[in-house]
Amino acid sequence: MVIVQKFGGTSVGDLDRIQNVANRVSQTVKAGNKVIVVVSAMSGETNKLVGYTEHFGDNPERAEVDMVLSSGERVTAALLAIALNQMGHKASSMTGRRAGIITDDAHTKARIERIETEAMQAALDEGKILVIAGFQGVNEAGLVTTLGRGGSDLSAVAVAGAVKADLCEIYTDVDGIYTTDPRIEPTAKKLDKISYDEMLELASLGAKVLQNRSVELAKKLNVSLVTRSSFSDAEGTLITKEENIMEKPLVSGIALDRNQARIALEGVVNRPGIASDIFGALATSNVNVDMIIQTSGHDGSTNMDFTVPQNELNDAKAVVESFCQKNEIKDASYNESICKVSIVGVGMKSHTGVAAKAFSTMATENINIQMISTSEIKVSMVIDEKYAELAVRSLHNAYELDK
Ligand code: ADP
Ligand code: ASP
Ligand code: MG
Predict the structure, then answer these.
(1) What's residue 361's pLDDT?
(2) Do residues 133 and 95 lie in contact, with contact meaning Cβ atoms separated by under 8 Å?
(3) Which residues have C-beta atoms less than 6 Å from ligand 1?
(4) What CA–CA distance (Å, rounded) separates 307 from 314?
């Protein structure tokens, strides 16, 4: 079998852990498999590097930021290759560039456009273990790009798809996907299987155990994805097509996203095309807008409230301020002390009352819901950040997810 094994930050957090990863890879190779490894930077490293880039002032050039951020993964990839070679294996590390990962130009959150597999294929044919630095690629102009936080998951899935691997294993510090973050709710239960769509919702709604774009790509390329622990041999969670899952619980999981900010626009001129202009400009600046609420304001104007990821708030502010200057928005305010809690489950498609239960649970806890959005398989609520954990725990309890 060809297996892609991805190891996250905690799994390669220090030199002993890198040795532990080398042992695991070695076992997989000795069992007769061809292995491509994708690694993250050591845990905490990317945050440290982000901090460095922000030291000299606001809005550092994104291309330079990517040069800095991509370095963390180079270190772990090369160290793992060294460890494997010391054990008698033939291993080579590769940067994203060498692995042929070509992206667009959106520095710090680039999208993979294609993968040129020649170099990887040649190394595999030579019987080598490949160790690829995750989280990075290169644009057409040859500049290094990074794939957004948590992007090593995406590297792994993309590589698995490109070389038509039989399996893509994501090794992390928990032994699978749980009904909610086990660090918040210790009674959370591990799921044996979860559908791509539910996992995509959970990941998009804040469950950082998998990067959302990696799940989207796994679904598209039909990559068999397993999440498991690098510290135990426990069986992980298979992320698969909905039809492969017999039991369909009403609610599969609860997600929490603390990385949210709310922008409130008051006195927006009420003319056809204004929403298109504002949200079009935000999209051009690569700001991901999530929930939007529009209400009518005074003297024919309108109010718009929407949420964006906290780390895109500065970009969003720049766009909003430009509309304020043109007098198309009277007043704008920004609130970072909010969070979004969501319940996700394919079973919701065919059952009523799921959303109502979420609202009544918040009411019982006296938590005010600021915004709501729903889709076929999820209900999301924006609430004050100070109630984040309480909300997750009481919802987990209300839907009896510990049973
Ligand atoms: P890595 O560094 O290996 O990529 P991450 O920190 O990105 O690992 O993701 C693993 C973490 O995701 C876990 O430690 C856990 O706290 C968190 N997490 C959030 N939601 C879930 C969930 N539903 N199931 C499992 N882990 C979750
Ligand atoms: N090191 C990067 C991050 O912390 C990518 C990853 O770990 O997946 O976001
Ligand atoms: Mg991660």
Answers:
(1) 97
(2) yes
(3) 8-11, 40, 150, 172-174, 177-178, 180-183, 207-209, 253
(4) 13
Is the C-alpha dihedral spanning 156, 158, 164, 166 positive or negative? positive
pLDDT in tens, 44-70: 999 999 999 999 998 899 999 999 999
The full 3-state SS of 196-245, as one line of letters, equals HHHHHHHHHCCCCCCCHHHHHHHHHHCCCEEEEECCCCCCCEEEECHHHC
pTM of the entire structure?
A: 0.93
Residue 224 near residue 166 (C-beta atoms within 8 A): yes
Cβ atoms of residues 103 and 158 within 8 Å: no
| Domains defined for the chain, CATH in brackets | 2-173 (3.40.1160.10), 262-334 (3.30.70.260)
Structure token pair of residue 396: 């987990």
Nearest to 361 by CA among 396, 403, 402: 396
Q: Where are the alpha helices (DSSP H) in 32-70?
A: 45-53, 62-69
- Binned at pLDDT 50, 70 and 90, residue 374 comes out as very high
Among 21, 135, 230, say which to mutate for ligand 2: greatest number of ligand atoms within 8 Å of CB: 135
If one counts every other C-beta atom within 10 angstroms of the C-beta of residue 84, the result is: 27
pLDDT in tens, 265-319: 999 999 999 999 999 999 999 899 999 999 987 788 999 999 999 999 999 999 9
Q: How many CB atoms neighbour CB 78 within 10 A?
A: 18
